[in-house]
Amino acid sequence: MPSRSQRNATLARQTMGYFEEARKRASRRRSAWNLLLIPVVLGVWLAMWYLSVRAVGQLLRHTHPDLQFVLLPDSGGGTVIGLGLLFAWLPMAMIISNLLIAAVAPARRALDREAQTVPGTDLVSANRGLMRVALVITPAGLLLAVVGILVA
What we know:
Elements: H1 4-28, H2 32-63, H3 76-102, H4 105-115, H5 123-151
Helix pairs in contact: 2-3, 3-5
């Protein structure tokens, strides 16, 4: 069994390896189109969250007419709903944003050119990976929102 110092050294090497890989990934992403992904993801994510919160709020108004609130109930249930929906829509917003940016021909060419040097970083592979993440996070976030609805 490895000693504590050996485990710590292994963990430090793994952590440094992760940061080294992240630095390499960042250095090959030189296109300004990559910067456009950030506001597009945030905008799509916020829109999806807001629309779903509005829908859940309307559902709560019909099922609990005695509750008084603006968007969501001012309770722990409302917080759980908001956080659950926030997590639920993040991977989907990233997939939609990738597709929106890819619909712009110059962006698609630039991002495809950057992805040629590293396998698994092209649009299809990235969205496939995000879909795998979405298959876990989206149902979990929606389940959390349902728990918030039941508690509200």
